[in-house]
Write a structure and sequence with these properties.
Elements lengths: L1 H20 L3 E2 H4 E3 L5 E10 L12 H13 L15 E10 L8 E8 L10 E8 L5 E8 L6 E4 L2 E4 L5 E10 L12 E6 L4 H14 L4 E3 L4 E5 L4 H13 L1 E2 L7 E4 L6 E3 L8 E5 L2 E12 L11 E12 L4 E3 L6 H10 L4 H13 L6 E4 L1
Parallel strand pairs: 15-21
Antiparallel strand pairs: 1-14, 2-11, 3-4, 3-6, 4-5, 5-10, 6-7, 7-10, 8-9, 11-13, 12-13, 15-16, 17-18, 18-19, 19-20
Helix pairs in contact: 1-6
Length: about 375
């Protein structure tokens, strides 16, 4: 029932995508500037101050080794063979994202995740942890109190936990120690990179930029646009701000159908058309016929021409005697809804969609995840 509702909801959303594509969008939402990017940071640390919910040191030797190394750096040397039985310490991995143009002294958020068998990080404090980049250089230092979100509820003889206790965040928990050099401003050009390849959208962006700054933009390929920018850094920032604020109408992407084989969810980015075909799968049979629809101008119209279009008419039958006739012009969303209503399972949908694609009836890209 839940999968059926999901399919119906997604198909309704698919019918709304077509009008949305006609709206103008900012270049800032469609493309990014080459060289302006974030960087991932990672580090290994210890969380202390837990209320008996830390790692079981007998099963996590790396936690004990980390504690001994930390105490040694602080001038405390433990006798050889000391057996530490600590329940208020947990070994964690600390991750963060270093934004573009971040400068030393700025604060960034960090995520703290247990890597041992700790039951909870709630109430713990992360000790000073260096965060390194892919080049193994330290770019930030993290420390602070771990906040574990969510809530728990307990009743007589039972408990319900609706949050995850082995991961938490520290808002502003890391201080940037080193800046990442940015390539912006080193050449006379800046490059805009589209989020997805589309030659039509590239052309429209080039035309929009050249309408304000004639001759400054040129297309490199279906994803990159080269723009000549001022040399002065202040003028270049203002120039990029104006470019990002320009609005264009992006071209429609190719029709695509995405099927999640684990949950049975089906998503479409726009109305997907069907060609004539006949499919038999188990106790289901699907017949798709295309009938011509003729549209012509009125008898006294001075302009216009006769247009012949194809509209799909779908018939779905099952061995139980169920029969569904979809209205002329039905798209894939209506077919999926009808199959679900007649009792088709997730595997049935996958097999039918694959058969439609193989037969050339499905006019869209089929992606199964």
């Amino acid at each position: 029932m839940m999968i059926r509702c999901t399919l119906i909801y997604l198909s309704l959303l698919a019918t709304l995508f077509s009008p949305l594509y006609s709206q103008a969008e900012r270049i800032k939402d469609l493309a990014s500037i080459q060289g302006v990017r974030s960087n991932q940071l990672i580090g290994y640390g210890l969380v202390v101050g837990l209320d008996g919910s830390g790692d079981q040191t007998t099963q996590t030797p790396f936690t004990v080794q980390s504690i001994i190394n930390m105490l040694g750096q602080l001038g405390i040397n433990l006798p050889p063979g000391t057996n530490l039985q600590l329940r208020n310490v947990a070994a964690v991995m600390v991750t963060a994202t270093l934004p573009a143009f971040a400068k030393p002294g700025q604060a960034i958020d960090v995520t703290v995740s247990s890597m041992g068998n700790a039951k909870s990080l709630r109430g713990g404090t992360l000790l000073m942890t260096p965060l390194k980049g892919v080049d193994n250089q330290i770019y930030a230092m993290a420390q602070g109190n771990v906040l574990v979100g969510g809530a728990g509820a307990a009743a007589a003889g039972s408990s319900v936990q609706v949050n995850h206790l082995n991961a938490g965040r520290i808002a502003g928990g890391a201080t940037v120690e080193r800046a990442v050099p940015a390539s912006l401003g080193q050449t006379e050009h800046i490059n805009l990179e589209l989020n997805s390849t589309n030659f039509t959208t590239v052309k429209r962006i080039v035309d929009a930029i050249n309408s304000y700054y004639p001759g400054s933009a040129s297309a490199i390929d279906g994803r990159m646009i080269q723009v000549r920018a001022p040399h002065d850094s202040n003028q270049r920032v203002m120039f990029i701000s104006q470019i990002e604020s320009l609005e264009i109408t992006p071209a429609k992407d190719a029709a695509r159908v995405i099927v999640n084989s684990r949950t049975g969810s089906v998503a479409m980015n726009q109305s997907v058309t069907l060609e004539s075909s006949a499919i038999a799968h188990g106790n289901l049979s699907i017949i798709i016929n295309n009938e011509p629809v003729i549209s012509q101008p009125g008898p006294f119209a001075r302009r216009g021409e006769t247009v012949v279009a194809q509209r799909a008419q779908v018939e779905i039958r099952s061995d139980e005697g169920n029969l569904m006739l979809l209205p002329s012009g039905a798209d894939l969303g209506e077919v999926v809804n009808a199959l679900t209503a007649i009792g088709a399972t997730t595997q049935d949908l996958l097999s039918i969609l694959q058969a439609l694609k193989a037969a050339g009836s499905l006019r869209a890209e089929l992606e199964i995840i």
